[in-house]
Amino acid sequence: MTATTTTGATAAATSGRRPRALPAWVLGLIGLAGLMLLTELAPRAGLVSRRYLPPFSDMMAALGDEAKTSTFWQSLLDTLRGWAIGLAIALVAGVLLGIVIGSLPAVRAALTSTIEFLRPIPSVALIPLAVLLYGPTPRSTLLLVVYASFWQVLVQVLYGVQDVDPVARETARSYRFRPLTQVRTVIWPTALPYVVTGFRLGAAVALILEITGELVIGSPGLGQQIAVAQNSEAVPSMYALVIVVGLLGVLVNVVVRALERRALRWHPSIRREMIS
Length: 276
Hints:
mainly alpha; globular
């Protein structure tokens, strides 16, 4: 018996074959399936009141009903539009100001304390100001989205400009490169990975603030529909809309990661990730 076991272990070691690990996306699906099963069984077993947590199948049925209404699709469109516009404004402003501020050491030194003062202020603290300025309209939510995601981009661009090789910068100056040529040939290649990181962080923050603004301020979108479902005690519909928001977050992350791999396919970190 011992000899047989030893022979089998020796054969396995000799062959060098190891059990193939499951892909990450399969493990992710298994985790989601476990969560759905728990959400289905916990209220049915009486562990949680169905008044506060309906079974997962009820949520899916409510989602099917929501998908048949034009209000749902219009709300989804409003949320995506507000998110995209806010993120685009924050990206353009953050990149331009980041390059300008980061390229001028005196300006950067003068604005560092101001940036560090404004950046930690939570966007939700600006809700009263936004409502005072624009009322319960999409522009109030847009202000929150731009403010929150702008700092994510700006700080990353500042890091990227700071990371430019001083020798390359001085060489460009010695050859009297024009400012735009310096930005295009020296600063931008170094800052691009940081810009993409800022875009990825800003995209997630923008979605959070878009939903928060709709929920609290009442501007049109999925957040407003969640508040309506909560106030009308339509609990399954409320959870169904929350699930949609979660799926939206996953979709945003997948799209942004795909754009990141495409924009930085030459970068060593992305190449290692693609190989692994």
